[in-house]
Amino acid sequence: MATTPSISSSLLVLPISYILVLFSVLVSTSNSANINHETFLKCLSDLSIDDQSPIPIYLPNTSSYNSILNSSIVNLRFLSTKTPKPHLIITPLHESQVQVVVICSRKLKFQIRTLSGGHDYEGLSYTSNQKLPFVILDLINFQAIKVDVEEETAWVQSGATLGQLYYKIAEKSSIHGFPAGIETSVGFGGHFSGGGYGALMRKYGLAADNIVDAQIVNAKGEILDRRSMGEDLFWAIRGGGGASFGVVLSWKIKLVRVPPIVTVFTVSKTLEQGAIPLIHKWQYIAHKLPKDLMLISWLVKRNSTMQVLFLSMFLGKPEELLQIMQESFPELSLRREDCIEMSWVRSTLYFYGLPFNESLSILLDRTPTPRYSFKSKSDFVKNPIIKSALGELWRRASEVDNPIIFMVPYGGKMAEIAEYEIPFPHRDGNIYPMTYEVDWTTQGDETSMKNIEWTRRLYDYMTPYVSKQPRQAYLNYRDLDLGRNRIDGSASYEEAKIWGVKYFKNNFDRLVEVKSRVDPSNFFSNEQSIPVAFDE
């Protein structure tokens, strides 16, 4: 990783010729927007010296602006002319350029939306419904990964993807991995700072549980590491949402040990094949299985037929897996021919539905395939859901074309870590989290509202069967239906607590305390950012 630069000695240069080219593009914009653009660009230029490449900056009404913005939008329901657009898109090349963008944005009252992979479920990394103008700070150029096998750590910049990390680890070692997510195109910035589920979490916990250092640009434009930011801020950005506290540039993570060969399987069952009794039984055993075994339950519709997929990874050989399954879940009737042996890194391709026998270079592809519109909501289940309710869940899922009901068992390491260890509080006492999602490809307000309302009705129906006081939710499956800050970016403690305790339970109060100390002016804000105390 690059050493931390000094703000006074390594600022960017925006040559006057570059500024003039940018200004010429602004002729077609409104006077007020023109003033905003010119003022912002002048601020960047004023803080420049002559030893760095200019910051790539993209302005509205240009083909580059639209292509870059559109390629960043993973959830296509935000690819609409009605969606608010940024005044500028900035793709810095160096850490010091991020500092300058923060300083100028704060000075000129621009909001910053930090983009690493674009997977925010409500689009908060690339759009805004608040009244202040905003810029996108796109970390696309921050993709460096340095793996140290001897130390069993890696430094990963926030613009890198999970797939890129998995590839880099595999280049150095066949017995190391990392407990992060299934979608290999997801960027590290949001995934890490919200928690980070993955197929290894029963063995090693969340991605955020395995972070040992970080670099962040704070509201003053300073670059801080764990030592200089202090333990409170370091605690807050590991599961509390980094965008509330600054721009996280990079993370130092602890690699974990995996066997050279793991075993995976997928068994699908329809309603006629006993899907409901199998899901019901799964609830009683999945969180009690050995830590080395992850057994996910996943309701989907394929070829217009609802089915449940039991998707699994075992850190061991098929023979041992078959014995465990026969003792714990004989009803599934797992066979040896269902089991596939492969390296851990190839299992990341398998879980994401990619060709796992082909070149690992597919992990380097940042483009999610396919892209579609979607809406998600999340819950946590503390007691097994009765069969009749599972049947109704199945029936309701069949009402839409592309439903996804995703259930990942807890237990293991997830039940051993205290709920206050990091801001992510959903630990012992939960047997599994549940995600309700619907995907669609037909664009238009009517289609969007139909699908969004389906998730809301299903969420309402599930109320008696999930966590209560609070009804918990997972930050990385962000849901603005739970509540949002005011249009000016402010929020009182009591207003934000409505959604805050759902994501963070009692950790919400500590997050507010940290926010109030490190960003008292509430510069880093969005529709669900942590508020400062007593901001009425």
TrEMBL record:
**InterPro entries for this protein:** BBE, FAD-bd_PCMH, FAD-bd_PCMH-like_sf, FAD-bd_PCMH_sub1, FAD-bd_PCMH_sub2, Oxid_FAD_bind_N
Protein name per Swiss-Prot or TrEMBL? FAD-binding PCMH-type domain-containing protein
Query: What cofactor does its activity depend on?
Result: FAD
PANTHER family assigned to the protein according to its UniProt record, in alphabetical order: OS08G0158400 PROTEIN
Task: Give the signal peptide range.
Answer: 1-32
* Pfam families noted in UniProt: BBE (PF08031), FAD_binding_4 (PF01565)
Protein keywords: FAD, Flavoprotein, Glycoprotein, Signal
The family classification in the record reads: Belongs to the oxygen-dependent FAD-linked oxidoreductase family.
Q: Name one GO molecular function term.
A: FAD binding
Please tell me whether the keyword Glycoprotein is annotated for this protein: yes
FAD-binding PCMH-type domain residues are: 82-258
